[in-house]
Amino acid sequence: MKNNYLVIFSFAASALVFAACKDKEEPVVEPTGPKVVVTLSEHEVSLHKGQTAQLSMKTEGLDADAKPFWRSQNSAIITVKDGLITPVSGGKTQVIAGWHQYRDTCEVSVVVPLEQVVLNLEEKELKVGKTLKLKASPYPDDNTDPWSVVWASSDPSVATVDQNGVITGLKEGDANI
Questions:
Q1: For 15-36, how does the pLDDT look when each residue is reduced to its tens digit (9 = 90+)?
Q2: Residue 78: CB partners within 8 Å, gap ≥ 6?
Q3: What distance in Å separates the CA atoms of residue 113 and residue 14, rounded to the nearest whole number?
């Protein structure tokens, strides 16, 4: 197929004008190749740490020797090998599986229940008029449950505690925080 082009150049005041014409439209060629469809057996999975789940992948249009892939979007939360999902820590991420650009995903939630709230001190003597700040931490630290701390004193006449965990000693005696 021969194309005839007419090209006109004109220089004027440091500007370039360009025009091109061709006599025939070239056909648009659509890409050809296998029509591939990848479908996972599940699109949402929820696991507790210590459990596993097995996904399967259905493919259409792949040769028998094609090697589909399995990948975790965040390997700090889950790992995946041949569709077997193994939780690492609490959180949400995706399993991505497929062949080249043909992919499907599965949203994975790893649930780690809050077992307890731990304080940085078990026992401490506090002088009258002095303060001490306690720190509360969740256990396990990768838990996925929402949690908050409400501070209280068993005897507010002996010691008070504010909403930030700061204890103030008021008089001699014992108080549990």
A1: 444 444 445 555 544 445 568 8
A2: 72, 85, 86, 87, 88, 93, 95, 108, 110
A3: 72
